Amino acid sequence: MEHTEQYRDGKLCASLAGQITSMCTEDMRIMEVCGTHTVSIFRHGIRTLLPRSLSLISGPGCPVCVTDQAELDAFIEIANMPDTILATFGDLMRVPATGSSLEKEKARGKDIRMVYSTMDALALARANPDRQVVFAGVGFETTAPTIAASILAAHAENLSNYSVYCAHKLVPPALEALMGLSGVEIHGFLLPGHVSVIIGGQAYASFFEKHRIPCVIAGFEPADMLMGIQELTEMISSNTPGLENAYGRAVSWQGNPRAQKVMDRVFKTANARWRGLGEIAKSGLSIREEFAAFDAARRFSIDPRPAAAPAGCACGEVLTGRCLPPDCRLYGTACTPADPLGPCMVSSEGTCAAYWKYNR
Amino acid sequence: MKNDTIVLDHGSGGLLSHELTEKIMLPAFDNDVLSRLDDSAVIESQKGRMAFSTDSFVVDPLFFPGGNIGDLAVNGTVNDIAMSGAVPLYLSAGLIIEEGFAIRDLEAIIASMAAAARQAGVSIVAGDTKVVPRGAADKLFINTSGVGWIVGDLEINAANARAGDCVLLSGTMADHGMTILNQREGLTFDADVKSDSAALNGLVARMLSAAPDGIRVLRDPTRGGVATVLNEIALASGAGIQINESSLPVRKSVSGLCELLGIDPLYAANEGKLIAIVDRACADAVLAVLRQDPLGADACIIGQVTADHPGRVVMETAIGGRRIVDMLIGGQLPRIC
Ligand code: SF4
């Protein structure tokens, strides 16, 4: 705790905010790619410390928000299979799928359990040998290693009733896809801290070389984010793009080789469908042939059908920085946290939810 | 008792029901009104205003560090009555028990209900027990209702907050909520957390005698936490409330756990804390009284009522930013109390 306190120091933050203000003489648009950054920015009131000329735009870094509707429908399909327990992280519970949500299915009597780690899901499988336990595998490079580890553990134990429905996504290909979208104007990227702990600064090198756009990896404490933003504004104003790491205490150039190894052992890259971004080549993970027995999609022959997002929902635009939540015509009327239409209003890391919660 | 678990017959109204009442409830709740065992408790009344409250307790797990469902059920209703400035006097207790429940656990829970009632100076004068088939209820649910008298012409309610008042919190936030969450199946972090379950009527009585005219609002921030209660006060009074993040008291172990689980302590439940909106002129006196009491040892001023942003709660963050503190929507922790 002491360790993080220095990164919440009011004086340090005020001085960083001052430096940013003096540097930000023209309009600058910085995208914080990661949903945890978005929430942290709102939670600490960081926007209120920054000049109006600096826009912080939220990106596609909320794992729940970018989960495709078809994947959500697949979770519901699994939850409806007899003798099955669907294990999931809590933030998926309320996300609307086509005509339902996991929360609603649970209320209808389907066995859906909220877990706090994949190890809890494994424990469920051990405790319920006569039922199939399926883990809803959603997330970026941050969660993928622990899910891979659960598959390795299940494999080692010969657990025949545990599997994962793999809907994992990767951050660098999403950045690449963003650059190819029209109507997205970004001058710099605040890159995610937790994801980078695993993949390291190296993972962004080819993206940076190709686009020469300022990129800074940042942590989640207020001073961490302000340091990252300060470096970005400096690069933008002096037109000297670089790929920098403002989170050196946690992120190295190589990342975490052990986690990468576990991930590589179990998963291979695959094309994936993103809400708002569509299909992106090699932007997701699938379970390798060797561990096919633990792949819920194969075990239960689930073939997700393309599904349409709710009519009028601008989540795709919000996730790609092409519009702000209040620009969505459903925001605050048909779509509120109590009665959400799109995932961005449900997820604790969702941009619409953050706007609603902290910024009205 | 011959049985060691609850069977359906314990709720039948026959011999076993009688035995449960005679052997467990009556000796524990021992008082003159209850021991008459009439169909209703006849209690002496006084002329004036009465406060009346009811609450149901469905906490899981039933036993947790710092208490169990029994003392929680007594303290919860005692506190609800005390928050209107009333002196709580009598409670009722309704139990819904799942078939198969261990009688030993029931005895322990009844004993702590009795102890909590004694400590709070209230009598449990009426009760009811139902037993439902296995699976029809989760182990044990308790409903408590209570009455108390309001002395004099005290007017304490959420609509009374006015600009310039101070917002006091009697101690650290989120102790109960995080204890329950930590105890949940599959989630036992080695964290030193303990529920704050306690009756606050004594504390309220001392606050009222220190500043009879200066206390405008009293609320206990249970489910939904401090943030939700402040929003309710802002809405009811039409005033704005501004709080300061750096003055919000949270135990280190609790804030560590919150951090780990991504939970905001502002929204986590408390069972032995109160929020008081107090005339600025009396704030120091009330604070002093609070701090003299072990239940209020960590009391502090967390903010003020303002004429700005009517109906809204705004926080000045520790780094000097500002943000809205909204009502909790769709529970952070399902079913914690
Ligand atoms: S306000 Fe609701 S409908 Fe609109 S983009 Fe956000 S989540 Fe989607």
Automatic annotation (TrEMBL), chain A:
Per UniProt, the keywords (alphabetical) are:
Iron, Metal-binding
Per the UniProt record, one Pfam family is HypD
Q: Which GO terms describe its biological process?
A: protein maturation
UniProt keyword Metal-binding present: yes
* Domain of life of the native organism: Bacteria
Q: What's a Gene Ontology MF term here?
A: 4 iron, 4 sulfur cluster binding
NCBIfam families reported in the protein's UniProt record: hypD
* PANTHER family, alphabetized: HYDROGENASE MATURATION FACTOR HYPD (PTHR30149:SF0), HYDROGENASE PROTEIN ASSEMBLY PROTEIN HYPD (PTHR30149)
Which family does the entry's similarity section mention?
A: Belongs to the HypD family.
What name is this protein filed under?
Answer: Hydrogenase expression/formation protein HypD
- Origin species, per record, is Desulfosalsimonas propionicica
UniProtKB/TrEMBL annotation, chain B:
This protein's source sits in the domain of life called Bacteria
Pfam families recorded? AIRS (PF00586), AIRS_C (PF02769)
Q: Which CDD domains match?
A: HypE
Identify the Gene3D superfamilies for this entry.
PurM-like C-terminal domain (3.90.650.10), PurM-like, N-terminal domain (3.30.1330.10)
In what residue span(s) does the PurM-like N-terminal domain sit?
A: 38-149
Instruction: Note the InterPro entries from the entry.
Output: HypE, PurM-like_C_dom, PurM-like_C_sf, PurM-like_N, PurM-like_N_sf
**Which residues does the UniProt record annotate as the domain PurM-like C-terminal?**
162-314
Q: Kindly list the biological process annotations in GO that this record carries.
A: protein maturation
> What does the similarity note say?
Belongs to the HypE family.
Q: What is this protein called?
A: Hydrogenase expression/formation protein HypE
Q: Which organism is it from?
A: Desulfosalsimonas propionicica
